[in-house]
Amino acid sequence: MARLLLSPNTLVSIGALTEALWDGVPPASAERQVQNVASQLRQAWLGAGVTEANEVVRTGRAGYSLDIDLDRIDLHVFRGLVARAAGLSDAGDPAAAAGKLREALALWRGPAFAGIDTQVIQGNALLIDEERPAAWEECMRLELQTGLHGRVVTELASLVAEFPFREQLTGLFMTALYRTGRQAAALQTYQQARARLNDELGIDPGPELQELHTRILRSDPTLLGPTAEGRAEVAAPAAGAGNAPPAPSQIPPPDGSFTGRRDELALLSEHCGEAQVLVVAGAAGMGKTSLVVEWAHRVRDRFPDGQIFLDLRGHSADSSSSADSVLEHILESLDLSPPNTSVPPEKRVALYRSAVADKKLLIVLDNAGTIDHILPAVPTGGGSQLVVTSRNSLAALHTRVAVKGVALGGLSRAESRSIITGAAGAAGGVPEGQGRGAALDRLLDLCDGMPLALRILAARMMADRSLTVEQLAAGLARDGVPLDGFAIDGDTRSVRSVLANTCATLSEDDARLFRLLAVHPGRRMRAETVAAMAAVPLPAVRRGLGNLLALHLVTKAGENHLAMHDLVQSFAAERLDAQKREDRPPEALDRLLNWYLSVAAMANGVLRPDRDAFAGRGERTESFVEQFAKDVDAITFFDQEKENLAPAIAAAVRHDIDRAVELLYHLHSYFLRTGFSSADMDAWKHCGDNASRVRDPLLRAHLHHALGGALVVTHDLDAAIGQLFLATELYEGQGEPAGAAGSRLGLGFAYELLGRYQDALAEHELALGLARTAGNITLVVHALNNSADALMALDDIEAGLERLRAGRELAQEHGLRHHEAAILSSIGALFLRQRDYPRALTHLHEGLVLMRKSGFRTAEADTLARIGHAVMGSGDAATAVEWFRKAQEVYRRNSDATGEAEMARLIGRTGG
Predict the structure, then answer these.
(1) pLDDT digit string (tens) for 711-741?
(2) 585-607 and 527-534 helices cross at what angle (nearest 10)?
(3) Residue among 609, 520, 600 nearest 566 (CA)
(4) Spatial distance between the Cα atoms of 863 and 843, rounded to a whole number of angstroms
(5) Whole-angstrom distance, CA of residue 335 vs CA of residue 359
(6) Strand pairing class (57-59; 385-390)
(7) Whole-model pTM?
(8) Distances (CA, A) of 63 to 11, 51, 57
(9) Which helix (DSSP H) or strand (DSSP E) does residue 111 occupy?
């Protein structure tokens, strides 16, 4: 490719290509290898979406050619701009010529053909690289000619350091120093150049540089060129003025779309002067640089000795600044570069600290990667302040110097909204109405406060005035790769590019771990889950996640979980897809689902130890989670994990429907105690919609039973009855009395809620018989309780109470705490019907204590409501309202909209 680029639109022979590849000593298979490389190059381009790849690399009779528009090759664009600059200079327009040269130089990204070390390519690269300093020399000459010596003097200092043996640059630097009143510095620069040429090359400066030195010694007034305003300088440099360079002012212009961050700006101002270093850390795209630049402009008057800014590019794998170059930039900015470039680093640090000890400087190091970049630049005291931005938390810095940190998260919802609506308003498309509000909310959800993402979307609307919020949201939803929508033509900085720069610094192991996080279907993840998914020991995973956390690729989400921004997860998914042969995402998902099955089975083992149809299915996956000691421990664990359960179930349905059913089976008892959210129900119903894929009749029975129970809890009673009938038939057909008993109990409860108490009692009686046949004490207790409720509804109070007492005795005998709690609540309800409020309250409170100990929240909500009714019956309406409010809160937590609405009705009717 490099050899073809040297001769675009020209046939390059096979011989010339082999000479370039193997330095004139090609192997016997050279021609075939060249053909293979050409084919691979075309395939790589086709894979990257370059559909015309075969038209770009053409095969000729005896070689290959690169057919391309020269305007797409930056070197040819560079040369064209240099030629146009020469024409403008000849026409007497030096300012325009300098502008074209700067435009050309901005195309330069580094040494030509870096990383290709064959003699042919590097020989050409040396010639190409010479064109850059030559262009700089002409640019600086033209800008000095137009009187911009005050602006170019700092750039010339940097160029002389980069190209120390180019005498024309040294002469231009001496001229600029002289014209800015720094005669002594100009003479010192000559002495440095003379010593360097002598020591390194054994020669003296050329006659032109020597003559310039003589003219400066004589204070030749003809060296004083015009000022930027076009008038001639008339005063010679003042004595001693060479030691008083102008204060640096390097802070970039403020971001015109800067929004919000009031608290962070106040924190920076508050912490300024309290610590040697202020660190602003946050994820890629969170606006760290914009924040610091905005703040720096607001406080620049506090730093009269200057403001220095340097982008360290610390999150780029191949272009970050070295610690020495950081200090060199600061010293050059202060006109303090030592005359000898071989001065040891520690002496440079000493020079810097001595020079700034009594100054008030603001030094901003942007995009720091490690503390090695920062430590040499830490001021020792005085009024100077060092401010650092980084995607890394830089925790090690706290062990070395005094640090105050600002952790930068996303913008608030209101701030995010203002960016999008501001752009939409400017484009004539202010969101209105429900549709536009929903579209705007989708955009805000996707950006999740990331300023870079928000500003890119805003810029797209500003650039295309016809693009509405609805169209933008629809386009992002339609795109196969969401990150494609978060880029804008003409700007290389996109969400994808900043994330790529961050990930480029990851180790191979951490990069794999990052990619595999895209397999996780939820937004919150535990280290234990990731360890199982990645098949890596837990300590190693904790270290890797710590590294990702330090780079803000993941963030803390509670004590035990980490979260990943949606756009970061999209980027991880892209990387995973590119590495799918090595990472094998289906296998990672398989391990993830096995982890959920393992912990769900552990939970089921303490919530319903009588119920494990999968006990003989072999050894479970290592979960890295301690065994649950009691039922409330399992419920607490899954309360923390609940947000992930619906996505995990949905992933299981897609990946392996049998394991999805097994997962529902093990989670059934947890959800019956804690309630179902709408997302949970959607996932369970989706599993039910795929019942035809389940071949095993018993497994299908488990699915219908679990889904039927969920539908009862969420008051979708007709659908529940259908599912539970199917489950009952399958269980009885397979000779499973325990399963049939559970399904009939669910049917009876559904009938009871519908007011069909005779049908309910009939199902409960059948369930009781099946439970006894199966020898399942838990189901016997459950059937006694449910049948008692039906008997009480039919006004057979004595028979109901007898069954409740029998059920409680069995529950106490076998340690079935949550069933005993439910029975106590039912006894309380019985006495409530009899208006025996003191006895009702005694049993209800006793049951409430056991419910809270066992995490039985669905029954807790009902019991709190019953207590409210009992208190109301006792004549204390105000206290009753308090109990209804408590019940309402638990119903809300359980996602029980029906119960919550009923409590609201009671509170309103009671005057609460």
Answers:
(1) 999 999 999 999 999 999 999 999 999 999 9
(2) 130
(3) 520
(4) 10
(5) 14
(6) unpaired
(7) 0.67
(8) 6, 22, 10
(9) none
